[in-house]
């Protein structure tokens, strides 16, 4: 039986976003997209909440705010999801708030490119996956992971991670079920 796989994203409309106080520091964030360990190399960056209009003044920060398209989690979220964030993940602190960027370092070759529907750049790299097809043997029960060849873009979680968030009262998480699909 297939385990459900979800693409993990922040819920951007209901909550405040975070941004860098100094956008010249954005280069260091690009390293996180590469899914490589930053242990001993990470220097925390200062962040602030974006309040652009009157609507935003009534919004709160969630446990999983939008921040430069990087997974970012509150201290409360880290405590609740500790079992899922201890392996293959580095928690990189930011300044001004008790949040951490989740650096997912587990990249697996589980996407069956022959059975998936994939859009590619002219270079051949994956631009977008419209329909996912996974090799279940390659998933290996990973609770949170990135896909080889698509690791700069998307983060995926398994059913157990999804259920824990759903039952936890944590806010700001948005899940798109990508596997298995209904035929």
Describe this structure in words.
With 183 residues, the chain is of the alpha+beta class. The protein is 17% helix and 30% strand. A hairpin with a 5-residue loop joins strand 8 (117-120) and strand 9. The two termini are 15 Å apart.
Give start-end ranges of low-pLDDT stretches.
none
Major beta sheet, strand line-up = 7-10-11-1-12
Give a count of the beta strands, DSSP E runs of length 2 or more. 12
Shape: globular
Share of β-strand residues:
25-35%
Percent helix, as a range, is 10-25%
What's the rounded overall pLDDT mean? 93
**Secondary-structure element sequence?**
EEHEEHHEEEEEHEEHE
Please give a handful of descriptors for the protein shown:
single chain; 183 residues; alpha+beta; three-stranded antiparallel beta sheet; 12 strands; 17% helix; globular
Record the SSE blueprint:
Blueprint: E1 5-10, E2 17-20, H1 26-33, E3 47-50, E4 72-74, H2 75-80, H3 82-85, E5 89-93, E6 99-104, E7 107-108, E8 117-120, E9 126-131, H4 136-139, E10 144-147, E11 155-158, H5 159-168, E12 173-179
Parallel strand pairs: 7-10
Antiparallel strand pairs: 1-11, 1-12, 2-3, 4-6, 5-6, 8-9, 10-11
């Amino acid at each position: 039986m297939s385990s459900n796989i979800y693409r993990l994203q922040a819920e951007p409309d209901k909550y405040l976003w975070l941004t860098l106080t100094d956008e010249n520091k954005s280069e260091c964030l690009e390293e996180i997209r590469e899914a490589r360990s930053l242990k001993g190399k990470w220097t925390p960056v200062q962040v602030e909440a974006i309040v652009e209009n009157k609507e935003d003044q009534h919004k709160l920060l969630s446990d999983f705010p939008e921040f430069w398209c990087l997974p970012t989690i509150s201290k409360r979220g880290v405590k609740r999801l500790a079992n899922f964030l201890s392996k293959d993940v580095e928690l990189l602190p930011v300044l001004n708030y008790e949040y951490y960027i989740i650096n997912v370092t587990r990249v697996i070759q589980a996407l069956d490119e022959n059975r998936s529907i994939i859009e590619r750049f002219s270079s051949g790299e994956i631009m977008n996956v419209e329909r996912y097809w996974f090799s279940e043997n390659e998933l290996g029960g990973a609770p949170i992971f990135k896909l080889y060849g698509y690791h700069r873009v998307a983060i995926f979680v398994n059913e157990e991670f999804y259920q824990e968030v759903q039952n936890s009262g944590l806010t700001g998480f948005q899940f798109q079920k990508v596997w298995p699909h209904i035929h």
